[in-house]
Design brief:
Largest sheet: none
Distance between the termini: 118 Å
Structural class: mainly alpha
Number of helices: 3
Length: 144
């Protein structure tokens, strides 16, 4: 703290020996030493408290940063969970629809042969209608 060299200490010692005297100098030196020790302990305590407060502030900042990161991770996990659930629900509904269609197709194939004949009649009717439309369109082109 203070830059006190050997020469300064020697001058202070000689002056104090002349002013105080040799009889009282040891008692004064003890008292001054005690006060210097108390001052050093006080300064050391203040430094320690200051360092602890800095560490505490740093720790609070670190804890705050960690809490922010944890909340961001929770949000990411929740959004991923929702996307996964939506994908699974979509896949499940698509699979159920496909299974229902497959069951209908199997049931239609297992039904009696009378229905396929009706379907064949409907197809024959559509083919006849298509031929008639084509023939009338060809006749119209030839006349032009």
């Amino acid at each position: 703290m203070f830059d006190v060299g050997f020469l300064e200490i020697l001058v202070i010692g000689v002056v104090s020996l002349i002013v105080i005297g040799p009889e009282r100098l040891p008692a004064v030196a003890r008292t001054v030493g005690a006060w210097v020790g108390k001052a050093q302990r006080f300064v050391r305590g203040v430094k320690s408290d200051f360092a602890n407060e800095l560490k505490s502030g740093d720790l609070k900042k670190i804890i705050g940063d960690q809490n922010e990161q944890i909340s961001e991770l929770r949000n990411l996990v929740n959004s991923a969970r929702q996307e996964l659930k939506a994908g699974v629900d979509d896949a499940t509904s698509t699979t159920r629809t496909s299974m229902d269609d497959f069951k209908k197709m199997i049931n239609e194939d297992a039904e009696p042969a009378s229905e396929p004949a009706a379907a064949t009649k409907a197809t024959d009717t559509k083919v006849t209608e298509t031929k008639a439309t084509t023939e009338s369109a060809d006749a119209t082109k030839q006349s032009d």
